[in-house]
Amino acid sequence: MSRDRLIFVTNDDGYMSKGFSAMVELASEFGEVIAIAPERVQSGMSQAITINQPLFLRLAEQREGVTIYAFSGTPVDCSKIAFDHLFSERRVDLVLSGINHGSNAAINVMYSGTMGAAIEGSLYDVPSIGLSLDDHSADADFEGAVKYGREVIASVLEAADRLPRPLCLNVNVPRCAASEIQGIRLCRQTRGFWREDFFEREDPSGRKYFWLTGAFQNIEPNSEDTDEWALAHRYVAVVPVQTDMTDYRVLKSLDGVL
Amino acid sequence: MSRDRLIFVTNDDGYMSKGFSAMVELASEFGEVIAIAPERVQSGMSQAITINQPLFLRLAEQREGVTIYAFSGTPVDCSKIAFDHLFSERRVDLVLSGINHGSNAAINVMYSGTMGAAIEGSLYDVPSIGLSLDDHSADADFEGAVKYGREVIASVLEAADRLPRPLCLNVNVPRCAASEIQGIRLCRQTRGFWREDFFEREDPSGRKYFWLTGAFQNIEPNSEDTDEWALAHRYVAVVPVQTDMTDYRVLKSLDGVL
Fold first, then answer.
1. Neighbours of B77 (CB within 10 A)
2. Where does A43-139 show beta strands of DSSP type E?
3. Which residues of B, range 186-215, sit inside 8 Å of A by Cβ?
């Protein structure tokens, strides 16, 4: 372990999740770990930030080379307070977010708190990796995610000086035995969207309420350069993520309209 | 007013906000309005969705051509229940989100609940417009936003058949008298990020807490094709928004690294 490196770890499932513990252990192989993770589950929180509400930070665990804080804010709040408050005097070498319980491939990157925190971290000019396993269960088996996560982390740290900034990787690992994983593929984000099925219920006083459930619609299931294709074929999918949301194609077609 | 058109209206400041009322009035000039807006303020909620929590929908107001629901979920939840539950049998002609109290130019597009809901709406193949005024105050003057919003809406509806899908516009209006606005500019998203200043306080029992405050860092203030430049020069900024977050430039530079 290199004590010279400082690794910031966060997630969206909260500091008590199994995936977070796996990420802290993995990170500690590469350097000193300081983690700030949400106090409670913050899945689906995207790039949300907390405005006009107080935020509580508390030390949850401290041991040799590992310090873990629980924070009452969103995943992005975790990254912000890490860089703009806790680390203001220290150089951070790597941001790791996850290991998420559930895939953040395709358009899930936009809804994901795990990726929200990873993207935010990358905006501080530090290489950032969001790591997710395509398995939502609380006791998911993270062996494959740890194995391939380790490989991606080592490669990024080794090449960090010559890679561009911001650098944010969305790494998704298929749900299968580690030995069945076919390798790592560089991909682009699959085109597609969710369609929801709202379960309708009534509370004891007759008030209607809904549960959001849905299914991802992949509109290009046969495109071999996409992250969904990679996962479906038992590859680890790596998609670099950026924050310029301008649609340059549409920009051209608006000429003369506006 | 054309009763043939159906306009879906939402926002992130909640159904009680002044900007939302201004948007409903504006929308009703173009067709029947059905609005679903958050029960409470949801600023900064980004593309967040509500997982594993029940969602409550209630009719808040009904009058000639205008129906308004208040929803306990996020702005994106509002768009999802509109299209996947309420409108499943009806064709929607336009999505309008706002009028937001505060600019959503530059990287704010990623944190904004207003734009989260607008983006989500565009994924149902309906033209979508997020409209924001560069003024956070609760009693902001929406005259300029309404005037230029009307112009953008009319142009989009007129050209809807020949414009590509998904189509989502991030429209930001400067804070000045309507008569001082210089016109409309098609722009790209300004490059930049926020740096935060966490105000630290102590509660009566000595527990530390923080308030998130910050300032936007524009790393290209002189680029005349950006939305921040347009706003600073009293133009209405229009940026088309897409959902492919792949960083294709970085994808190339990862060749051989992973």
1. 30
2. 55-63, 66-71, 94-101, 128-133
3. 186, 188-189, 191, 193-198, 201, 207-212, 214
The tokens describing A126, both together, are 């530090």
Single out the residue of A140, A138, A134, A129 nearest to residue A103, CA to CA. Answer: A134
Tens digits of per-residue pLDDT, A97-151? 999 999 999 999 999 999 999 999 999 999 999 999 999 999 999 999 999 999 9
Pick the CATH number of A6-188+218-253 from 3.40.1210.10, 3.10.180.10, 3.40.390.30, 3.10.20.740: 3.40.1210.10
Interface pTM, i.e. ipTM: 0.96
Q: Where are the beta strands (DSSP E) in chain B?
A: 6-10, 32-38, 55-63, 66-71, 94-101, 128-133, 168-173, 184-186, 192-202, 208-218, 236-240
Pairing type for strands B168-173 and A55-63 reads unpaired
Nearest-Cα residue of chain B relative to residue A190: B244
- The CATH code of domain B6-188+221-253 reads 3.40.1210.10
Whether B116 sits inside 8 A of A46 (CB atoms) is yes
Residues pairing with A70 in the sheet = A37, A58
Which residues 86-145 on chain B approach chain A with CB closer than 8 angstroms?
Answer: 107, 109-111, 113, 116, 119, 123
CB contacts under 8 A, A 19-58 vs B, are 41, 43-52, 54-57
